[in-house]
């Protein structure tokens, strides 16, 4: 169904010339549980891109960003989230990217479907983006994103230390029209697949490939990206325990 929607929405652009770029993205995620229902998360990431005449994935830095989340889990089926973020899009004239700082906030809802090892999630996100345009004005752009994602542990029942897991997702983006984002309703389609590994019970490494197709008037754009994510859970309490030890009821220190 998703492929049908994408086909219908991009019919006007499929015959246009497509310019392809290769990218390398990385992100470090830190999350901390406040209680069984509430948690905090912080992300920092960057993107590198190729340029015409340069084949290296690290030819030019394209983007830096930081993002802070608040999550609420009312039950084991739903996860409701809010984030506020800053994105710095660097000036890279070789790929027709101008300098465009952006402040972004979003509300998000995830619904979980679990079938033995398999975890299927459906995610909807509404983003309120304020992007600096050519007139040096931060222009408001709203965007709706819908994603289906599958995670499947390969050699264990759950994601834990020593467990490999597969990842796959399909995501559609829709936006409002503006000077900075263009007039089209459909923004892009992103398909990704990868694998993760539990370094410890609280730290995972994920490597994935994604393709983004952006239908644009005159010339479509396609981004092939290699993504590396490192995910830490409840890192600060474990650092404190490693540095200062844990006091026993008798008051002595046990490491």
From TrEMBL:
Pfam families: DUF2490 (PF10677)
Top-level taxon of origin: Bacteria
InterPro entries: DUF2490 (IPR019619)
The protein's name: DUF2490 domain-containing protein
Organism of provenance: Mucilaginibacter jinjuensis
